[in-house]
C-alpha cells in the first residue's frame, strides 16, 4: 500500500504540475555538479536531480505531496534508460519535429525578455544560440522518452471504476488544489506568400548553383552568408548525418534523388526554399548541406490573411458556422486545428488548462483583457520559422480554482489513474531493460535502491 500511495501521489504531481520535471529553461542558480548516474552514453547530473527536486517542492504548495528525492532520481534514471533503449531499438524522432517544438518554446522564452539578448545572457548566462541548442537537446530527449513510453505502455486503458477507486485512495488532505482554468481556442492563418516573392528566391538559388558549378562561388561560403538556417548556416550549410524519415519529406526525396556531390534545383518545404547538395550516403543515413531561404510575406499578404479571418469571425458570431468546425477546416496550426482550434493540456488532453500551461505571455495578457465568449479581432504574432502569422482567439469559458473532485476533474483523475498504471508497468520494464545497458550509480544514491525490485 505504501508503494501504491507513492505511485498515486507521483501521478497526481505530474498531472497537476504540467510535467515540469521535464522542463529545462528556468534558471535555478548554480549547483556544485557531478555525474550521479551513467546509462550507456547518457548521464544524469546532480544539478538535474537538484533542479527537479526543487521544482517538486515548489509544486507542493498546491497541496500535492511532492515526490521524494529518490523518486525524482529514479524518474530521471528511467528516462535515460528509455533514451538508451530507444537508440538500441532504433526509435527516433525527426529533426523537423524537434525544431518545430523547440522554436515554439524558444520564442516564448525570448518574448519574456522582449527579444533582448542582453537580458537573456544576464539571466541565463547563455547566448540565444546556446540556449536554443540546449532547448533542442531537451526537446529531443523528451520526445524520445514519450515515444518509448507510448511503445512500452501501448494498449493500457482505465475504466470509470478504476478512476473512482484511484480517487478514493487519495488521502483527503492530499487532494490537489487546481488553479483557475480556461478553455481557449485559436484559428491561425499563415499568410500566403506571393509567387513573385518565391520566384525571386528561386532565381537567387538557381544563380547560386550556376556560380558554384562555374567555379565562381563556394557552396559553404554562400551558406554562411545567405542561409537562414541558424543551425547549419554558420557550418557552411552542413546538416550532418540523418536517418531516412527524420527530415522533411520533400527535402529527403530531393536529397536521395541526387548523386554524391550533386546540387539540386530549389525545393520548397514547410521551412522555406532549399538548395541541397548530397555529400555522402552511409547505409540508412545520409549527409547533406543546404542553403535555406525563407519567403517573407508582404504587407499585402498579411492584410489578405487578416481580411479572411475577419470574415470568418463574422460568420462564427452570426452562428453560420461553429468555431471548432471553422478551426478544423481553416486553421493552419496543426497543433490545435485537429482539436477544433482549442489548446490542450499536454498531460491529460483536456481543453481546460491554466494560463501557466499556455506558456505564452502574449496569450496571457490578451486573455486578461477579454470577456468569456469573446472572439478577438485578427492579431499578428511572430514565429521563429514561419515569420508573421495571423490568428483570432476565442475565450470559450473559465473555471474557478477548486479542490479536486470527480465531477469537475474526471479527465485529470483519469489521466492520473492511467499514469499510475503506466508507472507500475514502467517499473517492471525497468527491471528487465536495465540488463541490456550499462548502468553506474554514484554511491550517494545507493540508498535509493533504484536497481532493486521493490
Task: Give a short summary of the structure.
With 454 residues, this protein is of the alpha+beta class.
CATH topology call of the largest domain: Triger factor/SurA peptide-binding fold
Strands, total number: 12
Overall, the morphology is globular
Query: Could you tell me the strand content as a percent range?
Result: 15-25%
User: What pattern of helices and strands is seen along the backbone?
Assistant: HEEHHHHHHEEHHEHEEEHHHHHEEEHE
Largest sheet: 4 strands, antiparallel
Supply the CATH superfamily name of the largest domain.
Porin chaperone SurA, peptide-binding domain
The CATH architecture of the largest domain is Orthogonal Bundle
- Given helix and strand content, the structural type is alpha+beta
Determine Rg (CA atoms, Å): 24 Å
Terminal-residue CA separation: 12 Å
pLDDT < 50 runs, ≥5 residues: 1-9, 17-31
Major beta sheet, strand line-up: 5-8-7-6
CATH class of the largest domain: Mainly Alpha
Helical stretch count?
Answer: 16
